[in-house]
């Protein structure tokens, strides 16, 4: 707690940019040669150290004002698309005002367009970025351009503004790729982008009144005129002389009534084309329903298929194909369809060393993983009339995973394996979800919406364990065949969810609003689980099992919104009634409770550029079917799990305080957040450990869990060349665990920070140099662990000419465990892009040039510390050619 406050104060003070020095106003009027005012001229000021001192635009009367430190010399740059640029020097010792005359430009029109563009424009709540003003020539995709925009942050392909994730990125006002922002940002060619419009106060409800608190940031991409009504994009082919290939195709077409996109990406050198997060974004159902303002307290029972990382595999192949089509036959109706298929094949070689209190076990493992995914979505938007809107969406998703592993286990310093075992897993997941929404404007200021969702999910995991040693001795009796023991588990889980939500908004006055919500969640699940000795069914008091689970949540919520000068707040509470019933072969359990859940959101706007927010929420989490089922569930060769019918609900309270300032004209951006959360009766897992076997079961922790977290993102452009970025986070958590009937009090502290120095020279050379630091401290009465990682990094792009681009990136991982270095890893990549013709590009890409073929990671629990070493793909060279349409 004290450490958090110290860091919070230190970081805020370290980024304070306000100065007590006396300020002087530099005012002016921009005129043309005929003494007419020049509107929308950009005025930039730089001090004697070439640092940015201010930026603004002239108004309709040609007037402008800059506030800067007195007693300094400045260089003033005035630019306008229709006039020649003007550069002048001033000494600002007191308030000044002068007239500035711009001369008509004598250069050709294309030169004016190329050199006289205004980088940033303000249009009400929308900020418009001129994409070409931020490009240097090294950009390939939209994501590369977004990274260079002030106030925009990219993390793992996701886009953030003021700490809020941007979930809606449209092209020419239309949704493509089924709304998946990452597919869009990583595939839309950068040379097709003309403007990037950031709407700071986008509202999903088209009839929302002025006081509804549904504002979220949204991006709209405006294409260049020569890209409209034509097919544009690129096709690439490449590979090496041995085992690698890289094939890509990205085609786009946008017209007045239709838009279509076709992309494919096949590669064998570790480039990630689709991730777990991308898949989850397409699931729909509950997640999308909650974005509309719904609520669901039931914990998820579905296990997700996890995509492996190709860069951490010894060999791999990724195949992806996606198609999007949009059609707007009339202005009232918009239809979009999207389908995507991916296939991943990965081979891993790894070693895991588990360090127990009295012995060490080392597993040498080879693993083959195959994943197939199919995703499709159909969306229909119909504006019935100017006062009502109807939307329908249906998703169909399917995933199949096969995982085969061979493991040799060595005890202590043995040279021969003590156990040889094989694991074979098969998992099939299917999800079909539908969502229907109707929104209507009532009168002048009121509106209501009705949202209905149905989701059907099916999960069928199968597990087979084969070993030279009997698994789970003491739990089951096995008969070996040919000196091998085999345990099979077959599981089937089906879930049906129905959700209904009605929302009514009443604008009481121009400064106050009342929102009423009524909701229903109903979930039915069926679970079947059987264990087999080879093909013989195992039967005891804990297997097989058949369970049926019913869950109902009814809720009503009222929220009052009020604006007082610069302060706006939402104050409300909901009444939630939860009821569950779990009927099975071994157990019966039920819950029936009613709770009042308050919530609060407050925002104080100091100015258009800065604000302070405070949020509080109180929620509940209800245990799901697997946690309540007292039947054996095999988690791995040494892990067996059994639920508990006595689980209660978890109470969860969270408060968050955040501050942001985004001053585009000072080139300064800061977002910082402090959070505290408290969980009571949290559901945790209790472990019993004996002879390497870990038996786990859930329990409600009687000790409240507390978590403090702090995060900061800041960037400051000091001059035309240099920009500093800082991204950091801290968290301090304490919680209870139970192992072998011993209650342990745990503390987990995490520190992470990245410092990036960015240099840009004449739009020809870019360099990012920085340092990433991560530290994780974990302790309880039995052990203490500390893991530290230092990673200096460099990334550069150099436009030698209009035809040649050089790029390189390097990082140096230094990993420590309890003060001892356990690994260091150098990673160097390099690429050359050459443009021999107007539409043709050639590439030479080299990865892992230093041929470091091992990655080390760490984990720990109350039983052992684990050090994992994985072999990687190794050095590769790819030559390719790209043709741009």
Describe the structure.
The protein has 885 residues and is mainly beta. The protein folds into four domains: 23-235, Immunoglobulin-like (Sandwich), CATH 2.60.40; 249-263 and 306-469, no CATH class; 476-700, Maltoporin, Chain A, CATH 2.40.170; 703-885. The chain contains seven helices and 48 strands. It has a 26-stranded antiparallel barrel. Strand 43 (804-817) and strand 44 (820-837) form a beta hairpin. Its main location: membrane. It comes from Profundicola chukchiensis. One of its GO terms (cellular component) is cell outer membrane.
How many separate structural domains?
Answer: 4
Helix content: under 10%
CATH superfamily of the largest domain: TonB-dependent receptor, beta-barrel domain
* Mean residue pLDDT: 84
Q: What share of the residues does DSSP label as strand, in percent?
A: over 45%
Give the CATH level 1 class of the largest domain: Mainly Beta
How many angstroms does the end-to-end distance come to? 57 Å
Shape: globular
Organism: Profundicola chukchiensis
GO molecular function, one term: siderophore uptake transmembrane transporter activity
Subcellular location: Cell outer membrane
InterPro entries: Beta-barrel_TonB_sf, CarboxyPept-like_regulatory, TonB-dep_rcpt-like, TonB_rcpt_CS
Short description:
It is found in: Cell outer membrane. The protein has 885 residues and is mainly beta. The protein is 5% helix and 65% strand.
